[in-house]
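Hi F.,

I've been meaning to write this up properly since the lab meeting, where we talked about keeping a consistent format for the predictions we share between groups. The idea is simple: the sequence comes first, exactly as it goes in, then the structure tokens exactly as they come out, then a line or two of notes. No screenshots and no reformatting. I'm using this chain as the first example so we have something concrete to point to.
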Amino acid sequence: MSDSPARRVLQVSEITGAIKTILEEGFPDLTVEGEISNFRPASSGHLYFTLKDRTAMIQCVFFRGAAGSLSFQPRDGNRVRVRASLSVYPPRGAYQLILRSMHPVGKGDILAMLEERKARLHREGLFDRALPLPWFPATVAIITSPTGAAVRDILHVLRRRGAGVDVRILPVPVQGPESAPALARMIAHADRHRLGEVIVVTRGGGSLEDLLPFSEEEVLRAIGATTIPVISAVGHETDTALSDYAADYRAPTPSAAAEVLSAAEEEVHRRLSHAAGNIHREFRQRLELIGRRLERVSREELQYRFRNFAQPWYQRVDAAVEEVRSALRDRLTATARRLEVATERVESSSPLAALQRGYAILRDRQTGKIVTRAAQTVAGQDLEARMADGTIPLLRVERTMHEEL
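Output, unedited:
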């Protein structure tokens, strides 16, 4: 039997906390330069993005209080210099920069290239078309990676909503040098062979570089040449590819594309209730813990601990709000479309529509009853003809030869 002491077993949270302390104490004030990618402003005012160079990248968080000092509007592709401290986001075990300030130092070549291509193709008219989506499509052709998150999200939503849609998955690589030619060929193939009443071109989220195939000119022209309506669902809510402009409908996420193609559910209420319950419960537990420690810490220590406590919850609240807003937007779009269809049906079946084509409604002026046959009238009877734009008083003067016969 060994006489050596038992090795201590650490919890994941202990390791993460130790790393967080080392990084925050070892790198409290850094100046870093790089290019912005995946810029995501939250409704709370916090800013999230990736700072990258040719060989590496790091996640950045710019909280609302500090971000209020910005003198410019950050965008993907901006080259910037930031002053920040290094920290860790424990729920993901990911290190990130917490920004104090940010200043522009240039514009990325990729974004400039995309802006030029967008403007040129817009002038050409490639983004002008808008084919209507079928209300209840029987078949849908999904062009994406067969193993990616996008196709799983779409199938999950369609299955959960019980949509009776025949889904045909057309596999292509969604990033890398072979992706754009494969996408263009598959779009043309799906259109030529009528593989679906709607074509969905989609992939999950990624960096600006990862999404580039969906902005290549050959892909945009393939979308513009189809006779079948195309939905572009590339990345997350804040991601944008030029396929969004060439397609007939832009869905902010793959799941949103599935919701457009299927019947609406009470998804908004479920998400809202679930998110609110989680936030309330975890905040209450954390606040109770903090309350027991308040007496033992200094003002400076209290500020430090509260900042570290609040940081992950700011990000979780932002994520929950974006999820709810996405569901609300999709529900409103579907409801508006149903109302439009119902209005068209009511107007087409109205009897007043016949009056616009030259018909009239004949009534007896005394009784107000509608006259449908000549035999219902007699000479000297007061009548009234209802036209599309008003009424005309009439007087029956004599019987016709046809009636006498």
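Notes:
The longest strand covers residues 94-107.
The CA atoms of residues 84 and 99 lie 4 Å apart.

If this format works for you, I'll send the rest the same way.

G.
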